[in-house]
Write a structure and sequence with these properties.
Elements: H1 2-11, H2 39-55, H3 59-92
Length: 93
């Protein structure tokens, strides 16, 4: 658990070996403002790490898998709605 929290803080720009990184306003410009991680952040980070362990990949491959799952689900829903429409038309005839 300690390693998970240490990794989470490092992912948010807080490094245990650099005390200067412990300040929120360190003068660096970022895409997202620096903030301390919350319990929700820890939950999401742990879930992402677990998924990486299960699929045996890194963050990039995990995101690609999520995107593939979204597209597959969308195609499945469209396919099912068309099948239902076709069944409705067959019953009318």
């Amino acid at each position: 658990m300690r390693h998970l929290i240490t990794d989470l803080y490092a992912a948010n720009g807080f490094f245990s070996d650099n005390h200067k990184s412990w300040v929120i306003n360190d003068g660096m410009t970022r895409k997202y403002p620096k903030r301390h991680p919350t319990m929700d952040d820890a939950y999401r980070y742990a879930f992402a790490k677990l998924k990486q362990l299960i699929i045996g990949g890194d963050t990039k491959s995990g995101r690609a898998l999520e995107e593939l799952n979204k597209v597959t689900t969308k195609i499945y829903r469209i396919s099912n709605s068309k099948a239902i429409q076709e069944q409705s038309l067959m019953r009318i005839k």
